[in-house]
Amino acid sequence: MSLMSVISRSKPKHRAIDKVAQLKAENEALIRQAFGAVEYIGQLELVNGCLADTARKLTEQRDAAWGERDELRAELSAARTRLAPLLAAEANANAVTVPAAERDTTAFEDQTTEPIKVTTLWAALGIGPVITTQGSTDPAHLPTT
Question: Does 65 have pLDDT greater than 80?
Answer without folding.
Answer: yes
